[in-house]
Amino acid sequence: MSLVFQNIWRKTGTVAWLIATIILSSLCVPFIFLIRLLSPWITFRFGYFTSDRLGHWIFDIEYYLVYQKKHFSQTPRTLDLFFLAPKPFSRKQICNSHLETMAKRTLSVNSFFRYLFIANNWVPCGQQSTLEPARLITGSLDIHGQFSVTEPNLRFTDVENNMGHQYLEQIGCTSSEKLVCLIVRDNAYLQSQLGSSKDWQYHDFRDSDIERFRQTALWLSGLGYCVVRMGKTVATTFSHSDPGVVDYANSPERSDFLDIWLVAHSHFCISNSTGLDEVATVFRRPILLVDFLPLRDIRTAGVSIGMPKHLKWHSSTNHLSLDEYLEIDFRDSRKYNQHGVRIESLTSGEIEEAAREMIALLENPSSINQNRDQLLFWEKLNQRLKERRFIHPKARISTGFFLNH
Asked: What are the residue ranges spanned by the domains of the chain?
């Protein structure tokens, strides 16, 4: 019975919150008219960031800062006001407390601005002064390539950098140039952070077994790299005896601050496509994306290599052709089954080969060029997408992909 009462209490609290939000927003309508009268001297704009998902949140902040500088640096009379929430009429959810700190010291962020945002949209012509997050505009993608020609806008303080370097010293990592962040999504995060009441099994095809990355981690450690297994909530440990491989995700030192700082200062990160690797995108760090789906998630904004999971036909066990692979592009495992397609994870050896390719790219960038296969892949990918995407000159699909497609 206690669970029933908890649900009733939660729903009652949600209704009360919505009523309070509507009342407070209504009281802000006169302020919106006043703000409109001030527009010849100063323009107010209202927006929000979806703070429940780290990847969208941090990317959208950087996207706003980059494009704000490009298009509106000549208009200092504009004041942009933001709040944090999944949606305008959703309660505030913060997936990373340190990113909230960074956002508030970089932008004008306050919970009260939610009511101004709602009131502004109630008054005619409100859309002209509304700032939507990049998640709704571009799907949190840098489709015009501005990240590649600008420096990161988000900054760490000297105190924060000292804290980060102290942690590296603690784990025996002599330099961030030798730091590799290993980000492997499993089913633990969505269940614990976004609600166990929802069935996330349709999403499980995007998960990977951390054990498939052990061979690569040990190989990198042998080269002198410090491999740090990341994650806020993970399903399993990553036990080992090699001091060059650190299971940070299960350590008492794990924090929202280090989650961001470590990826931002890594030599490169290895990921199977999850929100945390967008920190690497924002801080212009190279990304090795392996064992991921769907293919459209391949990173193109910066230096990157992508090697997705295998797709095979149930009827023949043959690999899909490149055109078929690009067409069978879903975010629901049930749809793959409906189309007669089986998903297979990469082997440990395939992941290591992709890592070797990344090391070669970073150590000698001029030795790896965009050959015919690469150019054909990117052209066909862009043809499948709704809008052409910027392709960084050093963004690649792994050579291992062409062995089967």
From this structure: 13-140, 157-403
Long-range contacts of 327-336 (CB under 8 A, 24+ apart): 327/384, 329/294, 329/295, 329/296, 329/384, 330/294, 331/203, 331/294, 332/202, 332/203, 333/201, 333/202, 333/203, 333/204, 333/205, 334/202, 336/205, 336/311
- Tell me the pLDDT band of 110, cut-offs 50, 70 and 90: very high
| Residue 396 token pair | 């690649």
Give the whole-angstrom CA distance, residue 142 versus residue 157: 26
Task: List beta partners, residue 83.
Answer: 48
User: Taking 60 as the threshold, does the pLDDT of residue 383 lie above it?
Assistant: yes
Alpha carbon distance 317, 332 (integer Å)? 20
CA distance 341 to 313: 5
Q: Give the position of tokens 């650190």.
A: 246
Instruction: Give the helix/strand (H/E) hosting 217.
Output: helix 214-222
**Is the separation of the CB atoms in 30 and 115 below 8 Å?**
no
pTM, 2 dp? 0.92
- Residues 189, 337: Cα–Cα separation, whole Å: 24
| Dihedral pair phi/psi, residue 43, rounded to 5° | -105, 125
Q: What kind of architecture, by CATH, is found in domain 157-403?
A: 3-Layer(aba) Sandwich (3.40)
Q: For residue 210, how many C-alpha atoms fall within 13 Å in the half-sphere facing its CB?
A: 23
Q: Which two tokens stand for residue 180?
A: 């590799």
Percent of residues, the chain, with pLDDT higher than 70: 91
Q: How far is CA 94 from CA 33, 97, 103, 160, 192, in A?
A: 31, 6, 12, 20, 14
Matching residue, tokens 């995060």: 189
CA dist., res. 349 & res. 108, Å (int): 48
The predicted-structure confidence for 270-329, as pLDDT tens digits, reads as follows 999 999 999 999 999 999 999 999 999 999 999 999 999 999 999 888 999 989 998 988
Average pLDDT estimate for 69-97: 83
Q: What is the pLDDT of residues 135-183, one digit of tens each?
A: 999 999 999 999 999 999 999 999 999 999 999 999 999 888 899 999 9
4 pLDDT band, cuts 50/70/90, is very low
